[in-house]
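Run log, item B.
One chain of 690 residues. Sequence copied directly from the ordering sheet:
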Amino acid sequence: MDVALVPPLMVSTGFLPTGSLLQSLIHTCNEVCSMEKLPVLQARNISTMIRRIKLLTSLFEEIQESNGPLPPSSILCLTELFSVIRRAKFLIQDCKDGSFLWGLMQTELVSNQFYVLVKELGRALDILPLSLLKVTADVREQIELLHRQAKRVELFIDLKELERREELLVLMGSNSEKNKKNKGFIDSVKVKDILCSIGLRNTMDYEEETLKLEAEAHKQAGSGGLIVVSNINNLTSLVSYCKSIIFIDDEFEKPSKEDLKVQSTPSNRYYDHSSSSQSLIPNVPDEFRCPISLDLMKDPVIVASGHTYDRNSIAQWINSGHQTCPKSGQKLIHMALIPNYALKSLMQQWCEENNVPQVQSSPSSSSDLERSNSKRDLYEHAVDHISVVKAAVDAVKLTAEFLVGKLATGSPDIQKQAAYELRLLAKTGMDNRRIIAEAGAIPFLVTLLRSHEPRIQENAVTALLNLSIYNNNKILIMAAGAIDSIVNVLESGNTMEARENAAAAIFSLSMIDDCKVTIGKRPRAIPALVGLLKEGTPAGKKDAAIALFNLAVYNANKVSVVFAGAVPLLIELLMDDKAGITDDALAVLALLLGCSEGLEEIGKSRILVPILIDLLRFGSPKGKENSITLLLGLCKDGGEEVARRLLMNPRSIPSLQGLAADGSLKARRKADALLRLLNRCCFQSQNQIG
C-alpha cells in the first residue's frame, strides 16, 4: 500500500479541455463518494476525505452548469485538484482492498498519506479565484470553509489502531507464564478480538487476508526489500496459525474420555502431595503412565509408531542412539514428537479431580531433539517489531503440530480439513515444508492416501507434493512407504486432480537418483503415468510427461516407458495444440532414442518426420534442439529410407540450413551433422544411378 508511488499529474492549462476536465472531476468524485463497504482501519481519515470530496463535487457541478469561460488560474487549480482527488481515490481503494493487517502495521504511513493529500488540496485551493466563478453563495462559503480547514489540518493517527497493533505485537512475542502453561499458544481469544476489530470475522475473511498478504509480498518483492517481505510473510504465518486455532478447533471433535480411558480400580486415597516421587501416587490409570519410566506423564507425546511416551523419557531414549519404539520394537521412520493434547487434557482433568499436583516438565539441556520440539522455547523474547522472524517460525511450528495432532486423532471430516490446511501451509516457503515434516505430518498424510473420501485423498497427495519440494522431505516420504500409495492414487484416484498431483509428486520425488530406481521398479508406476498421458487434462498430461522424462533419465527405465506404450501417445501429443506439451513430449522421445527398443518404436511412425520438419521451422529453441536430435538419430539408424523422406520434403533442407546458421550451439552442431549425412546419402544415390 504505497499511494505515494502514484505520480501527480503534470500541471498544464492544456491538460484537458475545460469540459472534459470538469467531467473527469465530477466522475472521479462520484466514484469516491459511492464507495461501499469501507474498511474499519483509517475510518476517520477516509470519512473526512470523502466528505471534503463531496463538497468539491458541488463546486464542480455548478461550474459545469454555468457553462461560461473560466479564468486560467481556475483551470490550473482544477487540474491540480483532479490529481489530488485521483490519488485520494487510489489510497482509499488500497485501504479497502488491501491487507488489513499490513494496513494496521503501516498506520502512521497511511495516515500521513491522507494528511499530505489534504495539504495539497489546500494548496490547490490557494489559487482558486472563487470571486470570478459563477457559483452560489452556499457553495462559495462551503469551499472557503474547506480551504481554511485544509490549511490548518493536523496529522491524525487513530490511537485505537496503534493500541491494537501493539497488543498484537506483544501477543506475538509474549513469553508470559500463562502462555507457557497453555503449551506456548498465543491467547487465541485476545487475538480473535483484535483481528475481529480490524474486519477479520470469519474463515473467509482469514483466507482473503492470506491472499492479500501474499499479493502484497509479491508486490513488495521488487521494491520493498527483504525485510519488508519478511515482515509480510510473518503476518501471513500468524493469520494461518490463528485461523487454525480459532476456527478449525471449533469444528474439530475432541475425543471423549471413553476413547482413551481403560479399566482401573477406583480409589479416593492418595499419598501426600508434597512427596517428591510420582511413583508414590497409587492407582494412576495405566494410560497416564509413561511406558518407559512408569510415572505419571508430564508432557505426553506420540512417536512415529503411534505410541505415547513422556517427552523427556522418549527424548533420552532416542538421543542414546535408539531408532525403534520401546514398546513395539518397530523402527521409527521419523523422530518427530507430536504433542498428545487430547491425553494431556484428560490427565489434567484427572489430576484436578483427585488433587494430584501437576508438575511441568523441564526440557533437557543436553537434548537437541528436545529443544527442537519443545514449545517452551517459543516466544522467549518480546517482539520489537514484526521484522523478528522467530514469531513467524514459531507460529508455523504451532500450526503444524496442532494440525498433525488432528490428523492423528480426528474424524474423517477433521482429517480432511487438517490435510487441507497443511496443503496450504506447505505451498510456500522451504521453512514451512521443513517444519511440517518435523512435526510428523508425512506418515499420517501417507495413510490418508488410502482414504475413499475424495477430498481427503486429494488434500493428502497435494500436501505431500508440496512437502516434497524440500529435498530432505523426499527421503522421508520415500521412507514412509509412500510410493505405492501415490501410484495407487495416480492409477485410480478418486478425482482427476488427485491423479495429476500424484504424477507431479512422482516427478518431484524422482529428482533424486535413488528414487528414480525405486519408482521404476514399481511395475504399475510407469504404466500409470502413461495412462494419465492419455486420459488427463492438459495440465495432467504435462505432469505425466515430465515425470516420465525424469524417470527415463535412468537407462533401465527407458525400456519400461517404451513397453508401456508411451511412444505413440507422445507422437500424437506433438500434433495436439490444446495439450500444449510439445516440448515435453519431444524431450521424452529424444531420451527414448537412447535404447534400441525406443529407437525401433519411434522409427515405426510414418507421421513423425513431417512433424519434426515443421517443428524445425516453428518450434521453440528447445523444441528445435530435440527435433534435430530425433531426426539425426532416425537417419543414423534408418539410413537411406529416413534420409530419402527428408530429401523429398521441400521444407527440410531450408529448415536445417536456417537452424545451422541461427540455432543454439547444440542445434547448429547437430544440424551440420545431419546436412553432411544427407549430402552423403544424396551423393551415394547419384553414384548408384550413374
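Observations after the first pass:
- The radius of gyration is 35 Å.
- The longest helix spans residues 225-251.
Flagged for discussion on Thursday.
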